[in-house]
Design goal:
By secondary structure, the protein is mostly helical. 64% of the residues lie in helices and 6% in strands. The chain is built from eleven helices and two strands. A two-stranded antiparallel sheet has the order 1-2.
Length: 213
C-alpha cells in the first residue's frame, strides 16, 4: 500500500515539475514576439533563453485547454523559426542552425520547413554557416520540396488529377527555375558556394524523381 501511495506521489510531483518547466507564459512570450514585424537583438537574447529552457525540458508544443480538452496552439520550432526571420541576422541564422543540430535525427518536419524559409531570406548567411554539411543541406532540400511543392504565381495554372487532388507544381523539369526564382540572390553567391548549391539542386531532383514514380 505504501508503495502505491509513494508511486502516486512521485507521479504528481513529476507532473507538477513538467508543468512548471513547460510554463505557458514562456510560450506566450514567444508567440507575441513571433507576431512582431522586427525582433531586436536584445529581444532575441531573451528568446534564446526561453527556447533553450523549453527545448531542454522537451517542451515542443504550446498546449492550452478548452472545455477540458487539450489542444496545440503553436509549436516551438515554428515560433523560433518565425522569430529568427524577424530578427534577420547572422546570429539568428547561427542559432537556428544550432537548434536544428540539437534535433539531429528528429522526425519533426517543421525543422526543415522553417530552415528553408530562413534560407530564402538569407541564403548567404545560411550557406556560410553550414558549409558542406550534408545533413543540414538535406534538411534544406526537404524544406524546399515541401514548401514549394504546390506553389504557383498563376492560380489558373493549378491543375487537378481525376480524383480532384491538386497536381504538384514542382517537378524534375521546372525545379531549377523555381529554385532560382525563389532564391534570386543565389546566382550572385553561386561561385562562392557552388559545391553546396549544386548538391541542393541534385538532391531536389532526386527527391522529385523518386516521388514521381
Amino acid at each position: 500500500m505504501k508503495q502505491i501511495i509513494l508511486f502516486a506521489l512521485l507521479v504528481v510531483i513529476a507532473a507538477n515539475t513538467f508543468a512548471q518547466n513547460c510554463d505557458p507564459a514562456k510560450f506566450r512570450k514567444l508567440e507575441t514576439l513571433s507576431r512582431k514585424q522586427v525582433v531586436t537583438d536584445s529581444e532575441f537574447t531573451i528568446v534564446l533563453r526561453l527556447v533553450k529552457n523549453l527545448d531542454r525540458n522537451k517542451c515542443s508544443d504550446y498546449i492550452k485547454k478548452r472545455n477540458g480538452q487539450e489542444y496545440v496552439v503553436a509549436v516551438l520550432t515554428e515560433l523560433f523559426g518565425k522569430i529568427c526571420l524577424k530578427n534577420n541576422s547572422l546570429n539568428a541564422v547561427k542559432e537556428y542552425v544550432n537548434y536544428v543540430k540539437r534535433h539531429h535525427g528528429s522526425a519533426e518536419e517543421q525543422l526543415s520547413f522553417s530552415f528553408e524559409e530562413l534560407f530564402v531570406r538569407q541564403p548567404e548567411y545560411v550557406l556560410s554557416t553550414i558549409g558542406y554539411d550534408e545533413y543540414l543541406l538535406n534538411s534544406l532540400v526537404w524544406g524546399f520540396v515541401n514548401n514549394h511543392y504546390y506553389t504557383s504565381d498563376d492560380q489558373k495554372k493549378v491543375t487537378k488529377n481525376t480524383d480532384g487532388k491538386v497536381k504538384p507544381q514542382l517537378n524534375t523539369t521546372n525545379y531549377k527555375e523555381v529554385f532560382y526564382k525563389t532564391n534570386p540572390g543565389i546566382k550572385d553567391i553561386y561561385p562562392k558556394h557552388k559545391k553546396s548549391i549544386d548538391y541542393l539542386l541534385s538532391q531536389i531532383r532526386l527527391v522529385l524523381k523518386s516521388d514521381s514514380k
